[in-house]
Fold these 2 entries.
Entry 1:
Amino acid sequence: MSVPALQRRAWVVLDEGNAMPAAATLMEAGWQVPQVLQGVQACAALLRDVVELPDVVVCGLHFEDGDGLQLTRLLGALAHPPAVYFATLQQRAVIKAAISLAAACRVRVAGYCESPDDVGVIVRDLASYSSPPPVKARTPLPQLSRQEASDLLRQGRLEGWVQPKMRLATSEVVGFECLMRARDEAGGLVTPDRLVPVLCANGLIEEATLEMARQTVDMVAACLLEGMAVSGSINVSMQSLSDRAFCHELARTTERAQLDPSWLTVEITESDAMADLSTVIENTTRIRMLGFNLAIDDFGTGYSSLYQLSQIPFSELKIERMFVADAHIDPRKRAIVQACAQLAVALDLKVVAEGVETVEELEVVRAAGCTEVQGYLVARPQPAAQALQWLRGLDLMRVPL
């Protein structure tokens, strides 16, 4: 529910010609405007000492003593930052970048206006802006100890949750990604943010990854026995791939299940792929020689060398979900998705769009040339047994979208 205008407070941080008119118009509309400032430094000094913060800071982007980007960072450092409203003559690309910075600094954006002297637009936009209710901070769960992580492994409490991948051309489920989870002694779910860092820090990640591989292989084999042609993929670090013993144990996992390794895809992140070129080529080529497929995950989040990518034997490229989210209303994201898809096609790779949650996003990635999708629109991650039941309930393996 929005706060009545008489209770809403705004600071105005604009240049000399626009600050007072904007403040006056806001006050006429019922806003409290206790601070009217004409530079960044004065606002910075006030933020150090002020007791009561406003709901919104109306600010420009360029001042003689600094800019609105600095101000956004200052606001982001606060425990409960007010929202910002950008009023500036800057190019729209600059404004969009400022909005992205605000999001990265966890500062809400109440809107923007490309004509700071058009105070009527500012007031109208702010009249429709509703401050979200305060969110009660969650008490973070304690980090796992090395012993607790080790116990999860030894006691068989690691649990692979799977998220299906759907072929766009036919709406068929053609694979799934295995995501690492665990169960504590009370049966509670241990999520990757608590689990994976401890495993990595204590030299347990290879053993845990092999356990995920075994569970993935079991799931794929069960699907194939029931006539469902579904492949699986697992996330593997470059550190693990550099261990020849790990790679050969991965191969033995498929051999024991009498499963062709081509039914399993190894996913590495883009940042891993940008390590020392000779090492990456050696490690990834070895895994391909053993018969596994190889995917580059989170594509677009790093600083890829296209030459380096062209030297690595990938079979699949996965577009990071941050580019897919709201791509139907963001032309820049849409362009990035299309460029990634075109690159994958040019390199003869399958291209998977991650994080597809709406029909509109689905149509964007389809038009861009993606071959498969993964995300909540298809299905959420779920325990393997539950996912198997879900697959059995589909008609001809097709997802009814």
Note: The CA atoms of residues 172 and 244 lie 35 Å apart.
Entry 2:
Amino acid sequence: MIRLPVVALAVATITCLWLLVFPMPPAQLSITTAATDGAYYRHAQHYAERFAAHGITLDIQPSEGSEQNQKRLRRAVDPTDLALMQGGFGYLGASLDRRDRSRIETLANVDVEAVWIFTRNRELDSLNQLQGMRVAIGPEGSGSRKVALKLLEQARIAMSELTLSKLTGSAAVQAMRQNQLDVVLMVAPTESFAVQNMLGLPGIQLANLRKSAAITERNPYLEPRLLAQGALDTRLPPRDITLLTTSASLVAREDLHPALKRLAIAVAMEVHTGGGLFHRAGDFPSLRRIDFPTAPQARETLIHGLPLLERLLPFWWAQLTERILLIVLPVTLMAFWLMRLIPTYLRWVLESRVNRWYGELKFIENDLSQETLSGLDLTRFLLRLNSIDKALMAFACPKDLMARCYTLHQHIEFVRQRLYKMRGR
């Protein structure tokens, strides 16, 4: 009557907390990147290898670029869990809808990407010199296209003055090789396939834009960085060049499981710890100049690492142990305490009832010791005794109180006989 309902309630509580309040993380994640020949896709492949070591499958979804990645994170049906985003699509780019700011969170900045402007047989130091040229700025939805259109707009160059192309990556390299393009503008890290191949083409020049500081003032997501002479190899670049750069970020949808956010940050710390052309080893991952709100787990994980259980145990064992400690153990102890407390409380209630009858009987005995008692007083005492006796007969007495109830019944009978004698006196 007591233990079975308590056990059922405990099982129901554990089930509700486990499934609804503190559920286990899913075993599959998705990440949206960019083209398959880009650096984002290669980073995602490294992520997939490390996630697999923790028992999680990472589905890599190529895309046209950061704009499409952002839409995939925000969509209401089947949103993507993670994305690699180019800088300029959030706070710093002033392009983020205020109503949607809380739907995407920054886990960490993971890399530096340069705005590469490759030209054929001509040196450029101003965007105004692009007029009349065939310029590749990437497909719709790509970060390269967004940056290019923004820079051209600020330079007051009308689209009608250019022949724009959607080519990017290896397709743009092939078009430059075949003299089908004059300029290629792309945002990519130095080690990307397209940048390395473009630098190897004969007659290809890197634009060295003047007034780069003014450009970065108008575009806070961009930073000027020096590409020193001979930094790429002994011949490239032939002189110091100032390039515009932006950051690449690993972001997640807001409602992604917190444990998976922590694990994604830890994976990024493994993949992006090395140095690059524009940063030193250990500079990334970081939370400097973020484009979206920081995930609550980001700063803690970057500074202190994973929680103790996730450091000591495999990922799934850590999640299971955490739920046992936070859900199963407290609820079980509470159920055990209730199974001990409820019977004790009920016994106290029953004993209090018997003691109350004993107390009433004691008051009657004390009143009978008075010298002057009328017949009306004796009748009143008798009615009180009969009410106690009637309540005692209706009382469902447990076995361990039967002896006390029987003794109380005898005492009532003893006092009743005494009343009868006093009435006949």
Note: The first helix runs from residue 3 to 21.
